Amino acid sequence: MPILFDSEKQCFHLKNDQLSYVIGIEKDKYLTHRYFGKSLPFYAGSNSLQEIDRGFATNPDPTDRKFSLNSLPMETSSQGTGDHRISNYQIRSTNGANLTNFFYREHQITSEKKPLNGLPSLRNGQVTTLEISLYDEIQSLEMILVYSLYEEYPVITRSVRYLNHGTQSVYLENAGSMLMDLPRTDFDLITLNGAHTNEANIARQPLHSGIQKIESSRGTSSPQHQPFLALVEPSTTEFHGEVFAFHLIYSGNFTAQVEVEQYGSSRVQLGIQPETFEWCLKSTEIFQTPEVVLNYSTDGLNGMSQTFHRIYQNKLVPPTWQKKQRPVLLNTWEANYFDFHEKELLAQADLAKETGIELFVLDDGWFGQRNDDASSLGDWQENTEKLPQGIAGLADKIHQKELQFGLWFEPEMISKNSRLFEAHPDWVLQVPAYPMTEGRRQLVLDLSRRDVQDYLIDMLSGYLATGKIDYIKWDMNRHLTEVGSLAFPASQQKEIHHRYVLGLYRILETITSQFPACLFENCSSGGGRFDPGMMYYMPQTWTSDNSDALCRSQIQYGYSYLYPPVMMGAHVSPVPNHQVGRITPLQTRGLIAMSGNLGYELDLTNLPADEQTNIAEQIAFYKAHRSLFQFGRFYRLQPANDFFATAWLFVTEEEAAVIYFNGLARPAVPIHQLKTRYLEEQAIYQDLTTGQKISGAELNHAGITIPRIKEDFATLLFHWKKV
Fold this sequence. Notes:
ten-stranded antiparallel β-sheet, alpha+beta, single chain, 13 helices, Beta-galactosidase, Chain A, domain 5, 19% helix
């Protein structure tokens, strides 16, 4: 069994070939964290707990002054009984008290992983699950800590269930998903931070005394902070060293934090952001927290990424799309914005077909009186002035050209200037007597309401049931304000943030289950809600509204810490670039976009003939090697330097490719031999440009010489076939 319980030592050992995780039971009550790291053949307890009489410490056992919860390495926090570090939960009883006594009661080990009620999570497989029940006898409350160990991956998932067996309601003021105390502080902390159009910047800094925290209170996971953190050794690189990574599968407000405490441990905690959360847990009810993925690597950050890539592709995204190739698409947004007519769209579709594009996507502007962003969200009826035969007629004409057809929606939003708002002003997130703040000239529908959820399910099902839509781009272009609901009493208003996310998940679960063949692309002004929760329903995300090649080389590099390229929408767009005004070569835009999920977002009819030809050649090359770019193993070979030069590798059993991006040209260029590092050592690889045959060992260790490049933003492609 991958999970063993030693009744004599009172400990659990979760183990596969790649990691071990050990949990102890202290004084028959308290769960202690004993070990997380490289796989152990067995656990004997050599790293025994230190027993020290700490001055200024409280002692829950009056006979043992050496025992204090304020220094005990724990698997969950306590409340009001002496553990003064960051907490994983906070519960208020009906008498106003904030005190609990959760003690170990029992456990269960099963050979399966059950879905989480109402929440996305990693899917079942070769998994063993440990459920540890902690019980507060005074309030009849149960807390179940859930650990699932994947046998094929260095991964454990964690979540918590809260059950009220009492007769009185209690209020969850904080419902975290996981906590652990690591017995060291000599780590660097890595997070992914940013902003709209500048997502996934890699931040790395040494831990210091106190609390280091990232979070979102914006209603979504946000472009500002990915719900992720990693603790690494100072010497850890892309290629070597130990990594402890934590990623929350949730699309709403979150907190991810580390506390370096007084006695030399690092407490890690992730979960729903507590300041915007509360939940009334009534008698007999259950509350389920989101799931955290714990990922351990001894092979540096690339090792961490390989695990995230494989398990997310195999155990997170919808099964239909786990191995299915993605089509090359043309999106109309930067070509047309709101200004288009069917005749123009069909002309673009003709050229799209000629160049080898497979999917034609109509973006914003097709419904209501949507000629700018000031109206019509919520009025999802076709604008027949633009589309005389509606969406069905346009889709038929696109299909006749042997292209797939895709359509943009922003279902969660509503314009004040819309028929839907006139009919249902109560359907908007709002707080009585306060004004409703607009963002991008729009308000947010109250997805905590069942009637709003049902309306959106019916509307989307109506379009998808025609069988004419092959792809949906699901956008969400603002953060939440005035997060209140007219459908709930005052005592439950702090539940609305989380209820909004649960409502979104119910809609997505219903729609994607009914129409599994439709390809859904997640978007929130780009990467504003790029998180594992959304990837459970939608197998790819529009990575950023910034499509500039230089910026994208950094954004896609950062996101590759967590997500494989096939999950990242990446488009070739016009120059000068619409976001930063930069001019980059078409070849560079193509190779950077091929390093994600390739698409185009420009008006083909306005391009000169030679660029149309070059695009056709790009697409033909990509299709010929689509398995390499979409499902090959992806490794980062060179982090960006001061000139933004970077490099990465794609590799399968049949071929390999390195894309090198030089960033800014510079003088006095040093000699640079780039090592591939991850090719099969004894294999022979033939360069598909020169015909030269080279061993994988030579490419890995001697490397390839990068020639001097006297041009900004150039790319080099090195491509080999294994012979």
